[in-house]
Structures are given as C-alpha cells and as structure tokens.
Input
Amino acid sequence: MATTYPAAVQQSIPVGPEPVRCVCPSCGAQIISKMKYEPTTKTHLIALLLCCCICWPCVCLPYCMDSCQNANHYCPNCDAFIGTYQS
Ligand SMILES: [Zn+2]
Output
C-alpha cells in the first residue's frame, strides 16, 4: 500500500533548538541542518535594558546567549533556509 501525502502538508519542517535530520526542500538531499543563531527583537530589548539599568559591559550578554536568539536552520548542501526555532 503506497503512502501518499497531501501536497499541502509539505512546506514547513518542524525544527527545534538542535540540528534536525530532514530532507532539504530545495535540493532534496537527506541532510542534518546547519544552525545559525540570529538576534531577535527580544535580544535587542534585553541589550537595551542592560544598557540603561545595569551596566554597559553586559550589553553583549544577550547576543552570546542562544536562548535569547532565534535558531535558524539551513541546508549544509545548498544553504537553503529550512526553518526557524524561536525560544
Ligand atoms: Zn539543500
């Protein structure tokens, strides 16, 4: 019995805070996603708060903390964007 998936379900691949094994939607290869952390609005807000309230040397802290940033997943083969994990 053949397994058929509705075409609509395809697109977004659920990703987590760690690299995921999946099929790249762009090149179709079986890959383990490559991750890049990118600052979000929250990151900038925390940095601003630290800057105003505590002391400026702490400003770089939220940029160093993974939990304050979005985790973007990319294909290691073709660099296609796979998904974002928001913590
Ligand atoms: Zn790819």
